[in-house]
């Protein structure tokens, strides 16, 4: 039987083997018994008598009741073995028949990626499973579907298309010329955007997204620099599987607009303009978190930054350890990290590293208390500690961030986060 569109045959074969296994039979019987017990306790005769919401609730309760049992553990082992078997069989077949130039590992990763993308397209509500990919760089196609799911807002796309069809002028800002000029200047002159420079289609896609974003604001005030910076990762994500010439097509721009505006609406208060209602409190909480983390993981660096921002009188009258306070550190950090945080590291790190950081940020958007930005901010400071410790004035730290952060690699961040996670588990 041919596989349905988008679903790899090896994955369907794996599913068939699992659902025919004794382990699957044992688990479904246990699940049925758990549901039946709930029906009895609720004095309900048939499962079909329940509403759809009640059915979902009963299923969730039953699944939770058996998830630590022997049957569930046995099925997990069976699923793992079956996935390994069918995926490796598919790769072995290709190695024998097609003589590919890529390695076996690349083939395995490619099929695993395609399988994950297919499953997410079929069951988008399972996007929370991407939390398993934290501290990993998402493959291009998996990144595209992940960002699309977490920044999904079809009404935005629909509204854009309707306005475009009724009168194309209404999707353009009154400052359209200024936006295209600033976009072009940024793409051609920002060192980390070199791979995007020189393409009319990329420039048009960037301009179209920002022009519509500004038109929605209904203001004559110009967009700020971070508005321009924050659209770039969305261009990079689209370009991973689309030729630059296709980026300016209506559907591509509609998706860019949907994801960009949704992102801008959801971003935390500390990334917004200083005059917005929640900025002050959000920025205070953010820098307090950064200061606390820095004091915990690198006391020497925290003390140095604290002392740089201590009043001159305090430096003369107190010992080196007594000069600063936690509040002094918070105020100092607010001044030096705000530009970097406001653009979510765009323009400060190489694009490859930025995309890794954004992956971690976006796949955690469905968890209210999750915020990885303070962690990446602290890691950035710690990775540049040798340069920062040489600074004798506060502005020197800003220079360090501007000149040296772009040399940092995503592997350095992954190592630091992995090491911190290990320490937390000890």
Task: Give structural notes.
There is one protein chain. The protein has 426 residues and is mostly helical. It is 67% helix and 0% strand. It has 21 helices and no strands. It has helices at 9-19, 22-42, 52-66, 70-97, 104-122, 140-150, 154-166, 176-189, 200-217, 225-229, 232-239, 250-266, 279-297, 299-308, 312-317, 326-342, 351-362, 373-383, 385-389, 394-404, 410-425. The longest helix is centred in the first third of the chain and has 28 residues, at 70-97. It is globular and about 70 Å long. The two termini are 50 Å apart.
Structural class: mainly alpha
Fraction of residues in H or I helices? 55-70%
Number of strands: 0
Strand content: under 5%
Q: Tell me about the biggest sheet?
A: none
Shape: globular
What's the helix count? 21
Low-confidence stretches: 313-323
Indicate the radius of gyration in whole angstroms: 26 Å
Q: What's the end-to-end separation, in Å?
A: 50 Å
Could you tell me the mean pLDDT?
Answer: 90
Give the SSE order as H and E letters: HHHHHHHHHHHHHHHHHHHHH
Features of the shown structure:
426 residues; mainly alpha; 21 helices; 0% strand
Question: How are the SSEs placed, and which strands pair?
Answer:
Layout: H1 9-19, H2 22-42, H3 52-66, H4 70-97, H5 104-122, H6 140-150, H7 154-166, H8 176-189, H9 200-217, H10 225-229, H11 232-239, H12 250-266, H13 279-297, H14 299-308, H15 312-317, H16 326-342, H17 351-362, H18 373-383, H19 385-389, H20 394-404, H21 410-425
């Amino acid at each position: 039987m041919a596989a349905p569109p988008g679903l790899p045959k090896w994955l369907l074969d794996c599913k068939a083997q699992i659902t025919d296994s004794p382990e699957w039979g044992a688990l479904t019987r246990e699940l049925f018994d758990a549901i039946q017990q709930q029906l009895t306790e609720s004095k309900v005769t048939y499962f079909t008598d329940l509403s759809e919401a009640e059915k979902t609730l009963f299923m969730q309760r039953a699944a939770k009741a058996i998830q630590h049992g022997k049957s569930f553990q046995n099925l997990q082992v069976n699923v793992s073995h079956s996935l390994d078997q069918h995926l490796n069989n598919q790769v072995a077949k290709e190695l024998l028949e097609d003589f590919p130039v890529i390695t076996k590992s690349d083939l395995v990763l490619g099929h695993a990626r395609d399988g994950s993308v297919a499953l997410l397209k079929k069951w988008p509500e399972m996007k929370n499973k991407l939390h398993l990919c934290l501290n990993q760089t998402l493959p291009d196609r998996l990144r595209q579907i992940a960002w699309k799911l977490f920044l999904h807002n079809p009404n935005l796309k629909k509204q854009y298309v309707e306005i475009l069809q009724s009168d194309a002028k209404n999707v353009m800002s009154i400052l359209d010329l200024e936006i295209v000029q600033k976009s072009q200047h940024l793409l051609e002159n920002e060192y980390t955007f070199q791979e995007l420079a020189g393409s009319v289609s990329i420039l048009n896609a960037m301009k179209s997204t920002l022009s519509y974003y500004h038109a929605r604001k209904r203001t004559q005030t110009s967009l700020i620099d971070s508005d321009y910076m924050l659209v770039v990762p969305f261009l990079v994500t689209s370009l991973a599987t689309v030729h630059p010439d296709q980026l300016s097509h209506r559907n591509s721009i509609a998706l860019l607009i949907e994801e960009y505006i949704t992102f801008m609406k959801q971003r935390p208060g500390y990334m917004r303009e200083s005059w917005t209602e929640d900025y002050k409190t959000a920025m205070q909480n953010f820098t307090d978190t950064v200061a606390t983390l820095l004091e915990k993981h690198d006391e020497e660096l925290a003390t140095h930054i604290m002392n740089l921002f201590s009043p001159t009188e305090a430096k003369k009258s107190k010992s080196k350890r007594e000069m600063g306070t936690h509040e002094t550190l918070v105020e100092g950090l607010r001044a030096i990290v705000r530009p970097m945080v406001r653009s979510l590291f765009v323009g400060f790190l190489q694009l490859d590293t930025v995309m890794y950081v954004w992956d971690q940020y976006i796949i955690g958007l469905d968890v209210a208390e999750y915020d990885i930005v303070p962690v990446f901010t602290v890691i950035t400071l710690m990775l540049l500690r040798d340069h920062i410790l040489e600074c004798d004035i506060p502005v020197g730290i800003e220079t360090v961030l501007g000149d040296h952060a772009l040399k940092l690699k995503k592997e350095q961040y992954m190592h630091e986060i992995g090491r911190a996670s290990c320490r937390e588990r000890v």
